[in-house]
Amino acid sequence: MNSISKKKLFYPVNKELRKYLYTYGRSSKLPVHYEDLLHYSDAFPYFDKKGVDTLWETVMYEQQSQAELNHGLTMIYALLKTDGDMSVMEHLYVSRIDYCTFGNSNPFRVQIMNQLNDNYDYFYVKRADASRIYGLELEHILSPSRINYFVHTDTLIEEHIAGIPGDAFIKDYVDRPGTNKVRLAKEFVKFNERCFIRLLGDMRSYNYVVDITPDFEDEQYRVRPIDFDQQSYEGRKSMYLPQFFKDNNVIVDLVLKLLKPETVKQYQNEERTLMFRRLKSARYRLKDLIDCMRKDTISTPEKIAQLRKELAEHHKSDEFLKCNCMGDLVRLNLKTLLVKTSAVSAGKV
What we know:
3-stranded antiparallel beta sheet, alpha+beta, 43% helix
């Protein structure tokens, strides 16, 4: 059983990372900051449609503060969705602000309502943590999905990632008659591979979502992480492999039951090949990001020492023992798993 650190340290955004964020359009001046939302006057539990306490609280503000926050948060939503085109604000309003009382980062979730059709969307206001930002960027560059977010001073704004929470999917969807369990098993293998290659940890079932896409004859699945706080932080190698978290056992059992070992290896190689292609197309951006990571502190010396030892044993390579930081380990893990796999596939080694 994996044991996550009780409270992950927050790491500030340093000068080099801020420069990277500005260069690649991730930095934007914001009218509302995380600290502004902490000054709420009242809160009450938020229950889901089934009447279950979600452990989020809906927060309320004094009238004057509420009006200012609503205007600023609507501007942020316009920035996320239309690059700041404020003409869309006329029919949008903030219908609810929720505060997460559990977990590590205590985010705020803002619900934006369209008064013309009562459709709604969400975005999140969080403390800017360097670990999470590196995680978001690596997801944007190396995964099949794009990530939309902005950073300003100590505030991080994130777009909502739609999908069925992994724990709910395992409970309510896996055994549906229409679920294609072979395709689900295949996607989990690919998700497991993506997390390990870029060293994204803590993918317990409530830290990812499953996106279901109806196909002309069946369903396709995409597993997407929604929590990036544990990017390259923990020391144990198994923390970066979702297969080792017990609340993923139902899907792991499907993989073992439905996929032969050679098929699993095929899907792993397919995902590595796709990730290598993404790496090549964004190699300069990725290099700039990794350079920032290598100059940054996003974990403890003890965890770095443990992870480099375990990765050296896993890959049977003493090169990992020369790594001095998490950025070095991410760089070498990418090189070992993606570049070498691609070279082997091309017959170059």
